[in-house]
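The protein record quoted for completeness.
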Amino acid sequence: MSEQDAAEEATTSDDGDADVDSEAAPDLEEAPEDVDTDEIDLDDDADEELVERVAEGDPEDIARELAALRSRNDALEDEVEELESEADELEEKLKRKQAEFQNYKKRMDKRREEEKQRATEDLVSRILDVRDNLERALDQDEDTDIRGGVESTLRQLDDVLDAENVDVIDPDPGEDVDPTQHQVLANVESEEEPGAIADVHRPGYEMAEKVLREAQVTVSKEE
């Protein structure tokens, strides 16, 4: 074999080996199709960065930093516990205040009801005295003049009503009609001016500027 043939055989052998190795070796530059290269695990990157920092940093500095972080974490936990305890205390105070307010409201309602009953009892007690006087007047003999006793009893009743801030609505004939205090029963012929009150059929009453009962009146006819 000549030197040229030996060289060509060697070249052919080398190329063949190269082709086989090239086909057998995987393409390292191509990523697998099922891997999404856009999704990057940031936690892994952060962990790697932390590992590099710890590996390259001074052990004493790292220890001091860790100790500071632990101390800060403990302080934060204490602060959270304190805030939670304060929140629980405020919630308990709020519940107590709500209960106290409900009890206060019940006491005030009960007191107002008792005061109302006492006020009514006092009024009834004074009216009973007036009723007793009327019965005494009726118990007199038929021939006895009871007018004086009735007038006295009426004055007594007026005193009771006056004490309760009750005023009698009893307009005089000739006065103008007040729709807020007078109830017109009929238009009648009278000597009064047309449209004026002719007579009072029944007096009315008002208490603390509130009309309890309108006075019933007749009005002079228009000509």
